[in-house]
Design a protein that fits this description.
The protein has 162 residues and is of the alpha/beta class. Helices cover 33% and strands 15% of the residues. Strand 7 and strand 8 form a beta hairpin. It is globular. 31% of the residues are buried.
């Protein structure tokens, strides 16, 4: 299956539309969002409508955590029911076959505010890479949060930039 990864959208509707069109032209079969759909809520309804329309599934990021977990009555007056239903379908983690998807390092807990808001840094040391691969059974790990490309194997970082 050809996956299209989206991450750290932060309600950038124009960038999101460009990314989806680009990935669709590459024959992506399934879109996965690695978190941080939201920013300040100003364009969350439109952002969620675009993602839902493209069939994107995803995991929550630190910016989405409140939308995904807060009581509905706290959110209902500010956001559309469609946007809330969509974003609340996001999970802490996702797995498809041999792939693990999360917003933060797999060795951290995406249900913990402290772990979600930990300052992101590239997990390129042998110790951190080992902790992440030991944390989940899947062979391939995908995470957001870094706002940049990074690829590694359990043996170390790869010379790749997207």
């Amino acid at each position: 299956m050809r996956l299209g990864l989206l991450s750290d959208i932060h309600e950038d509707v124009a960038g999101l539309c460009w990314a989806i069109q680009t990935l669709q032209s590459a024959c992506v079969e399934q879109f996965v969002c690695l978190g941080d759909v939201s920013e300040d809520g100003e364009a969350i309804d439109e952002t969620c409508a675009i993602l839902a329309g493209a069939g994107v599934v995803g995991v929550w990021g630190n910016h989405d955590f409140g939308l995904c977990t807060a009581p509905m009555e706290m959110l209902a007056d500010r956001f559309s029911s469609e946007a809330l239903a969509y974003i609340r379908s996001y999970q802490a983690r996702l797995s498809f076959g041999d792939c693990h998807f999360c917003h933060i390092e797999p060795c951290l807990d995406p249900r913990s505010g402290l772990d979600l808001w930990e300052q992101p840094s590239i997990p390129d040391s042998p110790e951190r890479l080992a902790r992440n691969w030991e944390a989940v059974p899947e062979r391939l790990l995908f995470m957001g949060h870094l706002h940049r490309w990074f690829a590694a194997t359990s043996r170390g970082a790869l010379p790749w930039s997207g």
